[in-house]
Specification:
Layout: H1 16-31, H2 46-60, E1 75-77, E2 83-85, E3 95-100, H3 105-121, E4 126-131, H4 138-148, E5 153-156, H5 161-165, E6 173-177, E7 183-187, H6 194-202
Parallel strand pairs: 3-4, 4-5
Antiparallel strand pairs: 1-2, 3-6, 6-7
Helix pairs in contact: 1-2, 3-6
């Protein structure tokens, strides 16, 4: 655990594949690039592209947004390409943002805790899962959603807008925002206590 996040310290590795994907995510977000495998021509082989990104990522990555900061109100598309204005929700009720991908093992590990938090707080809290679109097609995301039934509204950040605004360091990054629009928690990893972190934002 580090001073800025409530979960696992940013930068911990979970095998070479996960580490390389995280490095590529940092590079692509810094450049404002998102990779959608449905439109990539010719197809990009993740292993080669991601390994090549590792050295650059170490200098391109900014610190993630910190608790106490005002949450950016950004517009992100859903899977149907319709814009979702988070500014219409932030500041009206607590919000949970999870930045995830289908290949993220920590995101899958975190899902039962996210579902438990949703069951506990229901409509008192808005849950959004922001797919980072690195090595992700919309079809792949839809298949994953159908299989796993996550408890959040899914957004598809193909422009990288929210990922850049929140300085997302890796997948499984969670941001919790209180009803006043202030960040109260950030964390990474599959063992985050989402319900406990929400207690402060909800005021329970």
């Amino acid at each position: 655990m580090n001073g800025r996040t409530g979960g696992r310290a940013v930068g911990r590795t979970d095998g070479l594949g996960q580490t390389c994907r995280r490095a590529a995510l940092a590079v692509m977000l810094a450049a404002g690039v998102a990779l959608d495998t449905a439109s990539a021509s010719p197809p990009v082989r993740p292993s080669a592209a991601l390994r090549a990104a590792v050295p650059a990522a170490r200098s391109a990555q900014d610190d993630p947004i910190a608790p106490g900061a005002k949450a950016p109100a950004v517009v992100v598309n859903d899977l149907d390409g319709r814009p979702v204005d988070l500014g219409r929700v932030i500041g009206t009720k607590p919000v949970v943002l999870e930045f995830w991908a289908t290949w993220c093992s920590l995101c899958e590990e975190l899902m039962p805790r996210m579902k438990a938090a949703k069951q506990q707080y229901g409509d008192k809290v808005a849950f959004y899962g922001v797919n980072v679109t690195v090595n992700q097609s919309k079809e792949r995301v839809r298949r994953y959603l159908a299989q796993h039934q996550p408890p959040f509204v899914t957004l598809y950040d193909d422009k990288g807008a929210s990922a850049r605004a929140y300085h997302v360091p890796t997948t499984s990054f969670v941001v919790i925002i209180d009803r006043a629009g202030k960040v109260t928690y950030t964390g990474t990893g599959g063992q985050q206590d989402i319900a406990g972190a929400l207690a402060k934002a909800v005021g329970t």
